[in-house]
Amino acid sequence: MLVGTDLLLQMVDAGRVIKPGAEGRGDAKLGVLKELPGTWVNAHGVEGHAWNMIALPFGNPGSLGDFRLLLNQANETLEFDLVDLGVPNRGASGKDQHLASLRYLQALDQLKATDAVSNPDATVKEPATPNTNDTPKTDTLIGGGKVGIHREPGLFLAIASLAGPCANLNQPGPDLARLANIPHGDAVLAMGTSVAPFLHAPDLRNPALLALFDPMPIGLGSTDINNAYFGPYKHFHDAPFKGNVTAAGFPGFDPTDPLKLLDGAIAGVFPGSTIKNTSTFTVDTDTKGSVSNIPFVQCQANATRVTATFWIQEVETRDGHTHFVLQYAQRVLLEFFKSTLTPSGLIQWPHISINTLIRK
Protein backbone atom coordinates (compact mmCIF):
# COMPACT_ATOMS: atom_id res chain seq x y z
CA MET A 1 0.00 0.00 0.00
CA LEU A 2 1.24 3.46 -0.87
CA VAL A 3 1.43 5.88 2.02
CA GLY A 4 2.36 9.50 2.66
CA THR A 5 4.14 11.34 -0.15
CA ASP A 6 3.89 8.45 -2.62
CA LEU A 7 0.10 8.31 -2.34
CA LEU A 8 -0.22 12.07 -2.64
CA LEU A 9 1.96 12.12 -5.76
CA GLN A 10 -0.15 9.40 -7.34
CA MET A 11 -3.34 11.34 -6.56
CA VAL A 12 -1.90 14.52 -8.05
CA ASP A 13 -0.80 12.70 -11.18
CA ALA A 14 -4.29 11.26 -11.58
CA GLY A 15 -5.95 14.62 -10.96
CA ARG A 16 -7.55 13.36 -7.75
CA VAL A 17 -7.16 16.48 -5.62
CA ILE A 18 -8.48 20.01 -5.86
CA LYS A 19 -5.96 22.22 -7.60
CA PRO A 20 -6.03 26.01 -7.31
CA GLY A 21 -6.34 28.63 -10.00
CA ALA A 22 -5.38 27.76 -13.54
CA GLU A 23 -4.00 24.25 -12.95
CA GLY A 24 -5.56 21.78 -15.35
CA ARG A 25 -6.33 24.44 -17.92
CA GLY A 26 -6.16 23.07 -21.44
CA ASP A 27 -6.48 19.41 -20.43
CA ALA A 28 -8.43 17.54 -23.11
CA LYS A 29 -10.28 15.52 -20.44
CA LEU A 30 -12.24 18.68 -19.61
CA GLY A 31 -13.56 18.85 -23.16
CA VAL A 32 -15.39 22.10 -23.89
CA LEU A 33 -14.63 23.24 -20.30
CA LYS A 34 -10.86 23.14 -20.72
CA GLU A 35 -10.29 26.93 -20.83
CA LEU A 36 -12.38 27.66 -17.72
CA PRO A 37 -9.84 26.99 -14.91
CA GLY A 38 -8.72 30.26 -13.37
CA THR A 39 -10.49 33.46 -12.40
CA TRP A 40 -12.83 35.48 -14.62
CA VAL A 41 -13.66 39.05 -13.64
CA ASN A 42 -15.42 42.24 -14.60
CA ALA A 43 -12.24 44.26 -15.05
CA HIS A 44 -9.93 45.54 -17.80
CA GLY A 45 -12.75 47.25 -19.69
CA VAL A 46 -15.69 45.00 -18.82
CA GLU A 47 -16.50 46.55 -15.46
CA GLY A 48 -20.21 46.61 -14.74
CA HIS A 49 -21.11 44.21 -17.56
CA ALA A 50 -23.24 41.97 -15.32
CA TRP A 51 -26.95 42.75 -15.78
CA ASN A 52 -29.93 41.06 -14.19
CA MET A 53 -33.73 41.28 -14.40
CA ILE A 54 -36.30 39.57 -12.20
CA ALA A 55 -40.04 39.94 -11.61
CA LEU A 56 -41.08 39.55 -7.97
CA PRO A 57 -44.52 39.21 -6.30
CA PHE A 58 -45.74 42.59 -5.04
CA GLY A 59 -49.30 43.43 -4.01
CA ASN A 60 -52.62 41.83 -4.95
CA PRO A 61 -52.49 38.97 -7.49
CA GLY A 62 -54.27 39.68 -10.76
CA SER A 63 -54.30 43.44 -10.43
CA LEU A 64 -52.10 46.28 -11.61
CA GLY A 65 -49.06 46.45 -9.39
CA ASP A 66 -49.08 42.79 -8.34
CA PHE A 67 -45.43 42.42 -9.41
CA ARG A 68 -42.37 44.66 -9.43
CA LEU A 69 -39.60 44.39 -11.99
CA LEU A 70 -36.12 44.59 -10.44
CA LEU A 71 -33.01 45.39 -12.50
CA ASN A 72 -29.42 45.12 -11.23
CA GLN A 73 -25.99 46.06 -12.53
CA ALA A 74 -23.06 44.26 -10.91
CA ASN A 75 -19.44 43.19 -11.01
CA GLU A 76 -18.77 39.46 -10.91
CA THR A 77 -15.88 37.21 -9.96
CA LEU A 78 -16.17 33.65 -11.26
CA GLU A 79 -13.51 31.22 -10.06
CA PHE A 80 -12.90 27.71 -11.42
CA ASP A 81 -10.65 25.10 -9.77
CA LEU A 82 -9.83 21.65 -11.06
CA VAL A 83 -11.30 18.97 -8.81
CA ASP A 84 -10.58 15.74 -10.65
CA LEU A 85 -9.78 14.52 -14.13
CA GLY A 86 -11.10 11.01 -13.55
CA VAL A 87 -13.97 10.72 -11.05
CA PRO A 88 -15.02 7.04 -11.23
CA ASN A 89 -18.70 6.08 -11.06
CA ARG A 90 -18.82 2.34 -10.48
CA GLY A 91 -21.37 0.45 -12.56
CA ALA A 92 -23.25 -2.69 -11.53
CA SER A 93 -22.84 -3.97 -15.09
CA GLY A 94 -19.06 -3.95 -14.71
CA LYS A 95 -18.74 -0.76 -16.75
CA ASP A 96 -17.42 2.29 -14.94
CA GLN A 97 -18.13 5.87 -15.98
CA HIS A 98 -15.47 8.58 -15.61
CA LEU A 99 -15.97 12.32 -15.21
CA ALA A 100 -13.74 15.38 -15.14
CA SER A 101 -14.86 17.99 -12.65
CA LEU A 102 -14.39 21.71 -12.01
CA ARG A 103 -15.45 23.46 -8.84
CA TYR A 104 -16.75 27.01 -9.26
CA LEU A 105 -17.63 29.93 -7.01
CA GLN A 106 -19.71 32.79 -8.40
CA ALA A 107 -19.83 36.12 -6.56
CA LEU A 108 -21.73 39.20 -7.73
CA ASP A 109 -21.53 42.58 -6.03
CA GLN A 110 -24.11 45.18 -6.98
CA LEU A 111 -23.18 48.52 -8.49
CA LYS A 112 -26.65 49.93 -8.91
CA ALA A 113 -30.27 48.77 -9.00
CA THR A 114 -33.77 50.02 -9.61
CA ASP A 115 -37.27 48.57 -9.66
CA ALA A 116 -40.66 49.63 -10.99
CA VAL A 117 -44.32 48.82 -10.36
CA SER A 118 -47.60 49.78 -12.01
CA ASN A 119 -49.80 52.23 -10.11
CA PRO A 120 -53.60 51.73 -9.99
CA ASP A 121 -54.01 54.49 -12.61
CA ALA A 122 -51.64 52.60 -15.00
CA THR A 123 -48.74 54.99 -14.47
CA VAL A 124 -45.45 53.49 -13.32
CA LYS A 125 -43.64 54.15 -10.07
CA GLU A 126 -39.84 53.95 -10.07
CA PRO A 127 -38.38 52.96 -7.71
CA ALA A 128 -41.05 50.64 -6.36
CA THR A 129 -39.24 50.11 -3.05
CA PRO A 130 -37.08 52.37 -0.88
CA ASN A 131 -33.31 52.19 -0.69
CA THR A 132 -32.87 50.06 2.42
CA ASN A 133 -30.50 47.23 3.26
CA ASP A 134 -33.32 44.83 2.34
CA THR A 135 -33.83 46.40 -1.11
CA PRO A 136 -30.57 48.31 -1.76
CA LYS A 137 -30.27 50.49 -4.85
CA THR A 138 -26.56 51.38 -4.65
CA ASP A 139 -23.22 49.60 -4.28
CA THR A 140 -22.96 50.21 -0.53
CA LEU A 141 -25.23 49.15 2.29
CA ILE A 142 -26.50 51.73 4.73
CA GLY A 143 -23.82 51.67 7.42
CA GLY A 144 -21.16 50.45 5.01
CA GLY A 145 -20.21 47.23 3.21
CA LYS A 146 -20.62 45.87 -0.29
CA VAL A 147 -24.01 44.81 -1.61
CA GLY A 148 -23.33 41.16 -2.31
CA ILE A 149 -26.38 40.16 -4.35
CA HIS A 150 -25.37 36.58 -5.20
CA ARG A 151 -23.01 33.84 -4.03
CA GLU A 152 -23.16 30.43 -5.68
CA PRO A 153 -20.89 27.40 -5.26
CA GLY A 154 -21.13 24.47 -7.62
CA LEU A 155 -19.53 22.01 -10.00
CA PHE A 156 -19.21 21.56 -13.74
CA LEU A 157 -18.80 18.00 -15.01
CA ALA A 158 -17.45 16.72 -18.32
CA ILE A 159 -18.75 13.19 -18.79
CA ALA A 160 -16.21 11.11 -20.68
CA SER A 161 -18.17 7.89 -21.20
CA LEU A 162 -21.44 6.01 -20.84
CA ALA A 163 -23.70 9.07 -21.08
CA GLY A 164 -26.64 7.35 -22.73
CA PRO A 165 -29.94 6.08 -21.25
CA CYS A 166 -30.03 3.14 -18.84
CA ALA A 167 -31.19 0.78 -21.60
CA ASN A 168 -28.02 1.46 -23.59
CA LEU A 169 -25.38 3.58 -21.88
CA ASN A 170 -23.24 3.51 -25.02
CA GLN A 171 -25.78 5.60 -26.92
CA PRO A 172 -25.22 9.39 -27.13
CA GLY A 173 -26.48 11.44 -24.21
CA PRO A 174 -25.80 14.63 -22.26
CA ASP A 175 -22.05 14.85 -21.65
CA LEU A 176 -22.01 18.03 -19.55
CA ALA A 177 -23.57 18.86 -16.20
CA ARG A 178 -23.75 21.82 -13.85
CA LEU A 179 -24.62 21.36 -10.20
CA ALA A 180 -25.44 24.59 -8.38
CA ASN A 181 -26.43 25.58 -4.85
CA ILE A 182 -28.25 28.89 -4.46
CA PRO A 183 -28.58 30.68 -1.08
CA HIS A 184 -32.32 31.29 -1.59
CA GLY A 185 -32.78 27.56 -0.95
CA ASP A 186 -32.44 25.95 -4.38
CA ALA A 187 -30.35 23.07 -5.70
CA VAL A 188 -29.95 22.69 -9.46
CA LEU A 189 -28.86 19.93 -11.82
CA ALA A 190 -28.72 21.13 -15.43
CA MET A 191 -27.29 19.03 -18.26
CA GLY A 192 -26.32 19.52 -21.89
CA THR A 193 -24.30 18.26 -24.83
CA SER A 194 -20.95 19.53 -26.06
CA VAL A 195 -20.82 21.52 -29.28
CA ALA A 196 -17.73 21.44 -31.51
CA PRO A 197 -15.72 24.71 -31.26
CA PHE A 198 -16.00 27.08 -34.21
CA LEU A 199 -13.55 29.60 -35.65
CA HIS A 200 -15.68 32.74 -35.46
CA ALA A 201 -17.80 34.81 -33.12
CA PRO A 202 -21.16 33.49 -31.91
CA ASP A 203 -24.37 34.81 -33.42
CA LEU A 204 -25.91 36.49 -30.39
CA ARG A 205 -28.94 37.68 -32.39
CA ASN A 206 -29.89 34.20 -33.55
CA PRO A 207 -33.71 33.90 -33.32
CA ALA A 208 -33.52 30.47 -31.68
CA LEU A 209 -31.17 31.84 -29.01
CA LEU A 210 -33.39 34.84 -28.36
CA ALA A 211 -36.40 32.52 -28.06
CA LEU A 212 -34.54 30.36 -25.53
CA PHE A 213 -34.04 33.46 -23.37
CA ASP A 214 -37.40 35.10 -24.03
CA PRO A 215 -37.84 37.58 -21.15
CA MET A 216 -41.63 37.88 -21.17
CA PRO A 217 -43.85 35.93 -18.75
CA ILE A 218 -45.47 32.71 -19.95
CA GLY A 219 -49.12 31.99 -19.29
CA LEU A 220 -50.73 35.38 -19.89
CA GLY A 221 -51.55 34.98 -23.57
CA SER A 222 -50.56 38.24 -25.24
CA THR A 223 -47.37 39.86 -23.97
CA ASP A 224 -47.89 43.21 -25.69
CA ILE A 225 -45.93 45.63 -23.52
CA ASN A 226 -48.49 48.34 -24.30
CA ASN A 227 -50.91 46.46 -22.04
CA ALA A 228 -51.04 48.42 -18.77
CA TYR A 229 -50.28 45.23 -16.81
CA PHE A 230 -46.79 45.19 -18.34
CA GLY A 231 -46.13 48.79 -17.36
CA PRO A 232 -42.73 48.10 -15.75
CA TYR A 233 -41.48 46.29 -18.87
CA LYS A 234 -42.58 49.14 -21.14
CA HIS A 235 -41.16 51.70 -18.74
CA PHE A 236 -37.66 50.21 -18.96
CA HIS A 237 -38.05 49.49 -22.68
CA ASP A 238 -38.70 53.17 -23.31
CA ALA A 239 -35.96 54.26 -20.87
CA PRO A 240 -33.46 51.39 -20.48
CA PHE A 241 -31.61 51.08 -17.17
CA LYS A 242 -28.07 52.49 -17.48
CA GLY A 243 -26.77 51.60 -14.04
CA ASN A 244 -23.65 53.65 -13.33
CA VAL A 245 -22.73 54.05 -17.01
CA THR A 246 -22.54 57.70 -18.11
CA ALA A 247 -20.83 57.24 -21.49
CA ALA A 248 -22.63 58.89 -24.38
CA GLY A 249 -24.37 56.46 -26.69
CA PHE A 250 -24.71 53.63 -24.15
CA PRO A 251 -28.10 52.04 -24.91
CA GLY A 252 -28.78 50.71 -21.42
CA PHE A 253 -30.30 47.42 -20.30
CA ASP A 254 -33.72 46.74 -21.83
CA PRO A 255 -35.64 43.92 -20.07
CA THR A 256 -37.56 43.20 -23.27
CA ASP A 257 -34.23 42.43 -25.05
CA PRO A 258 -31.86 41.36 -22.26
CA LEU A 259 -29.23 39.74 -24.50
CA LYS A 260 -28.67 42.91 -26.53
CA LEU A 261 -25.76 44.12 -24.37
CA LEU A 262 -23.84 40.88 -25.03
CA ASP A 263 -23.73 41.60 -28.74
CA GLY A 264 -20.83 43.91 -29.53
CA ALA A 265 -19.48 43.92 -25.96
CA ILE A 266 -16.14 42.40 -26.97
CA ALA A 267 -15.68 44.83 -29.87
CA GLY A 268 -16.40 47.65 -27.46
CA VAL A 269 -13.58 46.55 -25.17
CA PHE A 270 -11.13 45.48 -27.89
CA PRO A 271 -11.81 47.59 -31.00
CA GLY A 272 -10.58 45.95 -34.19
CA SER A 273 -10.13 42.57 -32.49
CA THR A 274 -10.84 39.16 -34.04
CA ILE A 275 -12.59 36.26 -32.32
CA LYS A 276 -10.45 33.31 -33.41
CA ASN A 277 -12.22 30.51 -31.60
CA THR A 278 -15.46 29.98 -29.68
CA SER A 279 -16.38 27.07 -27.42
CA THR A 280 -20.03 27.06 -26.42
CA PHE A 281 -22.45 24.89 -24.50
CA THR A 282 -25.94 25.04 -23.05
CA VAL A 283 -27.16 23.30 -19.90
CA ASP A 284 -30.84 22.99 -19.04
CA THR A 285 -32.73 21.38 -16.16
CA ASP A 286 -35.22 20.12 -18.77
CA THR A 287 -32.38 17.93 -20.09
CA LYS A 288 -32.25 15.06 -17.56
CA GLY A 289 -32.00 17.58 -14.72
CA SER A 290 -34.08 19.11 -11.94
CA VAL A 291 -34.57 22.01 -9.53
CA SER A 292 -35.25 21.40 -5.84
CA ASN A 293 -36.46 24.23 -3.60
CA ILE A 294 -37.16 24.77 0.08
CA PRO A 295 -40.88 24.89 1.09
CA PHE A 296 -41.22 28.70 1.20
CA VAL A 297 -39.84 29.03 -2.33
CA GLN A 298 -42.08 26.21 -3.55
CA CYS A 299 -45.27 27.90 -2.40
CA GLN A 300 -44.39 31.58 -3.00
CA ALA A 301 -42.24 31.84 -6.16
CA ASN A 302 -41.22 28.37 -7.20
CA ALA A 303 -38.11 28.03 -9.40
CA THR A 304 -38.93 25.33 -11.95
CA ARG A 305 -36.41 25.55 -14.80
CA VAL A 306 -32.85 26.82 -15.30
CA THR A 307 -31.28 27.31 -18.74
CA ALA A 308 -27.81 28.75 -19.34
CA THR A 309 -25.59 29.18 -22.40
CA PHE A 310 -21.86 29.93 -22.15
CA TRP A 311 -19.49 31.22 -24.84
CA ILE A 312 -15.73 30.95 -24.19
CA GLN A 313 -14.00 33.09 -26.80
CA GLU A 314 -10.35 33.45 -27.77
CA VAL A 315 -9.88 37.07 -28.80
CA GLU A 316 -6.90 38.42 -30.73
CA THR A 317 -6.44 42.18 -30.49
CA ARG A 318 -5.17 44.22 -33.40
CA ASP A 319 -1.77 44.51 -31.67
CA GLY A 320 -1.47 40.70 -31.62
CA HIS A 321 -2.28 39.99 -27.98
CA THR A 322 -4.63 37.16 -27.00
CA HIS A 323 -7.36 37.34 -24.35
CA PHE A 324 -10.02 34.89 -23.27
CA VAL A 325 -13.52 36.28 -22.77
CA LEU A 326 -16.46 34.43 -21.21
CA GLN A 327 -20.01 35.47 -21.99
CA TYR A 328 -23.15 33.85 -20.66
CA ALA A 329 -26.92 34.17 -20.55
CA GLN A 330 -29.09 32.45 -17.97
CA ARG A 331 -32.85 32.19 -17.55
CA VAL A 332 -34.63 30.89 -14.44
CA LEU A 333 -38.41 30.42 -14.57
CA LEU A 334 -40.23 31.42 -11.40
CA GLU A 335 -43.89 30.44 -10.97
CA PHE A 336 -46.34 32.64 -9.11
CA PHE A 337 -49.87 34.00 -9.69
CA LYS A 338 -52.60 31.94 -11.34
CA SER A 339 -52.80 31.17 -15.04
CA THR A 340 -55.04 28.87 -17.04
CA LEU A 341 -52.56 28.67 -19.92
CA THR A 342 -49.69 26.67 -18.38
CA PRO A 343 -49.55 23.02 -17.25
CA SER A 344 -48.79 24.10 -13.68
CA GLY A 345 -51.63 26.62 -13.65
CA LEU A 346 -49.22 29.41 -12.71
CA ILE A 347 -47.60 32.23 -14.65
CA GLN A 348 -43.91 31.57 -15.37
CA TRP A 349 -41.76 34.69 -14.87
CA PRO A 350 -38.29 34.73 -16.49
CA HIS A 351 -35.36 35.82 -14.32
CA ILE A 352 -32.50 36.57 -16.74
CA SER A 353 -28.82 37.29 -16.10
CA ILE A 354 -26.07 38.13 -18.60
CA ASN A 355 -22.40 39.00 -18.34
CA THR A 356 -19.14 39.48 -20.24
CA LEU A 357 -16.02 38.58 -18.22
CA ILE A 358 -12.32 38.47 -18.99
CA ARG A 359 -9.92 35.82 -17.69
CA LYS A 360 -7.15 37.09 -15.45
Task: Describe how the helices and strands are arranged.
Layout: H1 4-13, E1 38-41, E2 50-57, E3 67-89, E4 97-118, E5 124-125, E6 148-159, E7 176-182, E8 186-192, H2 207-212, H3 231-238, H4 265-269, E9 274-284, E10 290-293, H5 295-300, E11 302-316, E12 322-338, E13 346-359
Structural class: mainly beta
Tell me the helix content. Answer: under 10%
Count the beta strands.
13
Rg, Cα atoms, Å: 22 Å
**CATH class, please?**
Mainly Beta
CATH superfamily: Calycin beta-barrel core domain
Count of helix runs? 5
Indicate the overall shape. globular
CATH topology term: Lipocalin
First and last CA, distance: 41 Å
Strand content: 35-45%
Brief descriptors of the model:
mainly beta; single chain; Lipocalin; 13-stranded antiparallel beta sheet; 360 residues; disordered N terminus; 13 strands; 5 helices; globular
Would you mind describing this structure in some detail?
By secondary structure, the protein is mostly beta strands. It has one domain (4-359): Calycin beta-barrel core domain (Lipocalin, Beta Barrel). The protein is built from five helices and 13 strands. The chain has helices spanning 4-13, 207-212, 231-238, 265-269, 295-300, and strands at 38-41, 50-57, 67-89, 97-118, 124-125, 148-159, 176-182, 186-192, 274-284, 290-293, 302-316, 322-338, 346-359. Strands 1, 2, 3, 4, 5, 6, 7, 8, 9, 10, 11, 12 and 13 form a 13-stranded antiparallel beta sheet that branches. β7 and β8 (186-192) form a beta hairpin. The longest helix is centred in the N-terminal third of the chain and has 10 residues, at 4-13. The protein is globular. The two termini are 41 Å apart. Mean pLDDT is 93; it is low at 1-5.
